[in-house]
């Protein structure tokens, strides 16, 4: 099978609380500078000749401050059912009507990609995680979901209104586990740089007038071959 015929490998990248909260009012409830730097470094990549791509839903796109749109150094694809949705002056950015359509755009691009990341929101995350649980190795889908880069927060945010499916406990139709947590060495090797290990502690800059220290850990979960 040629590279052009192979399904596009998608990596989900997300930060979630102990109760799997990932958002509030279509934006992040926290502002963690080091964790944001990790997201940027991971999705941009480094040392490779080919560009990376990020796929996101419309609300995730709108949740990014306009001065930071599109995310620089990456091909941006925005998924929206609104065919006339205005992306504004956004170079290297495409509008797609669905995730399969977004994948088709990336697969048909003139320049091949290094890696493609799904960066939100909850509807896209959860739909692809559900697909991964039922996706056979021989699937004819144009993409495959085989990796989750999870920043696991150990600090709770009770006002989250958007949640990630608890994928770690997923099983396939025949009862087999779908995901395994990779070792930190595997994460470092895949990333190509020295990702910090163990619990990280950082001040949440979104909290005003008080100190809120947030603990989290960088994890990688890999889909077990079916």
Automatic annotation (TrEMBL):
Uppermost EC category: oxidoreductase
Domain DHFR: 9-223
Cellular component GO terms held in the UniProt record: mitochondrion
Record GO biological process: dihydrofolate metabolic process; folic acid metabolic process; one-carbon metabolic process; tetrahydrofolate biosynthetic process
SUPFAM superfamilies, per database record: Dihydrofolate reductase-like (SSF53597)
Stored InterPro entries: DHFR, DHFR-like_dom_sf, DHFR_CS, DHFR_dom
Keywords, comma-separated and alphabetical: NADP, One-carbon metabolism, Oxidoreductase
Gene Ontology terms for molecular function: dihydrofolate reductase activity; NADP binding
Annotated pathway: Cofactor biosynthesis; tetrahydrofolate biosynthesis; 5,6,7,8-tetrahydrofolate from 7,8-dihydrofolate: step 1/1
Ranges that cross the membrane: none
The enzyme's E.C. designation: 1.5.1.3
Similarity-based family: Belongs to the dihydrofolate reductase family.
Protein name, as recorded: Dihydrofolate reductase
